[in-house]
Amino acid sequence: MIAGRPPAERYTGSSVRRTEDLRLLTGRGRYVADIQVPGLLHCAFNRSPHAHARVLRVQTDVARRAPGVVAVFDGWQMAKLASAAGGMMELMGETNLPSFSLLATDKVRLVGDPVAMVVAETRAIAEDAAELIEVEYEELPAVMTAAQARDGSLPPIFEDLGSNVLFGPDQKVFGEVDRVFAEADRIVKARIAQHRHQNVPMEGRAILATFDQATGELVAHAATQGVNTSRQIIAAQLGMPLEKVRVLAFDIGGSFGLKFGASREEVACCAASRELLRPVRWIEDRLENLTVSGQAREESFDVEAAVTNEGEILGMRVEMVIDSGAYPGFAPGIISTIQEMIPGPYRMRALSFTASGVITNKATYVAYRGPWASETFVRERLIDLVAAELGLDPFEVRLRNLAERGQPPLRMVTGPSLAGLTAKESLLRMGEIFNFEEFRRHQAAMRAQGRYLGVGVATYIEPAPGPRPETPPTELEWARASLGEDGVVSVFTAQMPHGQSHQTTMAQIAADQFGVDFEQVRVVVGDTDQVPEGFGTGGSRFASMAGGAALHVSRQLRSQVLELAAQILDVSPATIDIRAGEVVGDGVPDGRLPLSELVKLARAAAAEGRIPQGTETSLEASFGFDGGQGGWSGGTHCCVVEVDPETGRVRVDRYMVVEDCGEVINPAVVEGQIRGGVAQGIGAVLLERSAYDEWGQYLSSSFMDYLLPTTTDVPNIEIEHLQTIPLDQDVNFRGVGEGGMIVAPPTICNAIADAIAPSGAVVLEQHLPPTRILELMGIIPQPA
Amino acid sequence: MGEQAPARPGRYSPGLPRLVPGTYAAVVLKLPPFVYLAPASLEEALSLHADHEDESRVLAGGQSLIPLLALRLARPEYLVDLSRIGELEGISEEDGAVCIGAMTSELALEHSHLIAERLPLLPQALSFIGHPAIRSRGTLGGSLAHGDPAAELPAVALVLGAQLVAESRDRGRRTIAARDFFLGPFTTALQGDEILTEIRIPWQAPGTGSCFHEVARRLGDFAMVGVAAVARVEQGMIRSCRVALTGVADRAVLRTDGELGLTGESAGSFDAAARRLAEELNPPADLHGSAPYRRHLVRTLVPRVLERACQAAAAGAIS
Q1: A529 interface with B at CB cutoff 8 Å
Q2: Lower CB density within 10 Å: C or N end of chain A?
């Protein structure tokens, strides 16, 4: 945190109680399922039992005749109402896209692919009727691995793409790769893989669509990370003008990257409402959510590091394959970030990065908290492998390679500036918090007793937003602010909180900058009729981008209000101020004028023409922020584990975080974000896996098989914030939502690898359930 | 019956809609259509169950059956809910055995003083079942009649030599020994018209010790392997012992000292017996554990559990 905060900042930097708490903690939140609408219809989907098959015939007559059923749509009928073109991938600029439909017409491409939609008076009726639909399939061989997708032996999942290779291999070279590999004392090679796991929000996907015959407008209550993005997709796919679609969102039960835009089922729900002229709701159930909503992280890397005997990492060669799943998803969009970020905060001089993507009969690749996290996983695991190869301590190898302020070039080999980097401080501080030497002694003593203890460290940076690039982003984050007659400052943002407490943190910033009490700020989200443009919440964008926009717009509105007050009171703007919701200062009658009074006076004065031309009287301001000078988020995590060689179970004994996320807006919120991310990281390594069998049946479709960490699996997480290096004059808040989930998996894997190293185990994967641990330790045989 | 199960407030909270016998339950979310029957007496339940024999399933807590229905993996035409039948709940003693009504909740058993005194193995095993909320609904009879090959209670019934009382309208009452009760995965000796009404478990005799332990992915998950053991030790030698395992076969498995080759062995050398047992079993593989992993757990858990049982026996306590 920055020392010497101006005394005016009463809220920024303190753990203000969350505005959201009362409703969320007392069960008064309002989710899509809570909305009451007269005449509401419900829908359920008939879904494919096959991973890959031709659809020969869809018989819907029996379902249609069931009591309470209002309509049944098969793929061809739905295709007449809405198109699947113009989805999220088109919005993101992808061009190499196959054609497909909202509901399957000719083919199904994964287990759970929607084939027909039943709309009925109740959800229960819709579910029962969905079972009455008979579908005849001709099964096709399922493409389940990247190798199958690449060897061309199986039929293409999308005929119009001609193959199951979605893109690549595309190579990009930074620096003199061949030269550093020639100079190197050793080359350390490994194939490191991440396993498929997924976002599991408490609330699945959800939408309630109402087509208004009178206005021709479609209103959708959605669970979404951005109402504007959802609106664009719904309008495009329904063939409606943008202004005829309004998207509303209120409380959202988590998302972690899943709920961007509008999914096929959600758009089908909107189409049904327009067709049937009644409101239609779809609430995704857990089986659907686990099976088809989307999965992430399945990426494998062949890596080579050119190193010196002293442990200096000169460069890397990386070949990456990403498994994109069935339908167009986030995979192509994430490659450039992984490529750019893989050197992280380290000084390597050269990088060759080759990427390709494949299509398989599995759930679509979606963004999941820190979608580019594989760059940190691969690099941080590789550093430990280098250390093992050279007989050095992993802590020392990191220290030796981390870039440092004052030592040029302070720049990643891939381009981005490392200005303001505090990675080295975070590692050194971790070395003070945790006594590594003492632990090594303890570890050796325990080993002599047959016990396997390990410590793991990982260091990362996150572009949230990253230092200002040479060409600043053209896409701004907007905030609008207005002062109402009640003296309340309203701040409008396109950010869509779904667990991040934006309504609290944005109000903290605005209250301080404008000069009102926290309670006197209203943060407006979730209505395309009210919020400014912007794609929504993602990429840890809120803190710097939206926080910065809120800061600047509040200042702008404050100047406007002070100028107006000065005109009305006939004083110099320099002599007055806004404090605690009142205009105060010399010349103010009684020394103080509540803002509500000022607004009334201003309205009257404007009506009477007493305000000179050129003075702004709108009491509204708008600001588009480009991130300013930006800066990195990041830090070092460290954890201590014990592996039980009898059961293969891992116990996390201690977990420590040293973090720099710039100027902290609300410590409790920041720490909550870090803890949540670490919990998901623990889940990824020890529990969570989206597993398929070789025929494409999904094996993790319930919480009996997709295991989430519970309170007993997550230890106390010790967090310390570093003093940040401010780069911007005004805005040094940085995003922190994703970091925990980015760096926890390598931290935990490194600790486990350290623990079981005496058995000769080498860890090259992220998922380490008990069976795998004992296999790696050589205690039980590996599968053939 | 003697000790009554504690009242379960909230089960029929006033104000909440309550399904009445004969209600056609097609409006229930997730579950396939079925006729819901909630008899108030055992006699009525037996009669309804017999009327619909093959199409009817008994609902005895619902912690396994309801999820199976929700996933539409079970589709009974009739559901006979035993939860209104008070006579099926309770814990009492008779002729050296504890008699437990089939509908007694797992939580009630866990907190019973009588059970703690006479069958200390039972609460120890119960603590591994799901979570308190699940145990407050789940019943002893429900779990045994479900016959899940990874559940804890079948192993406990086997190791303690439980007698299971089955009743039917037309053929009356019969008693089935636990070792004859579990026939395969989710398959028991109960006939289509029979209801499991009571479980009689002989007291754990003074001088014996017992232990239950399992390894699961998370606290409350189904065991990958669970082991229950009772042992009698005299002068450091095993006089008799029984070991039951769950999660290792298509049903819970029982082995006695003779079968384990432990009779007369010193209480403390179990590794060889555990290795033989592990080799002889052919455990299943799933997402949570491979077959070699489960075999390894048998090798490590069996000695651990037997040692604790012997220690308990030697300590003179029965637990």
Answers
A1: no
A2: C
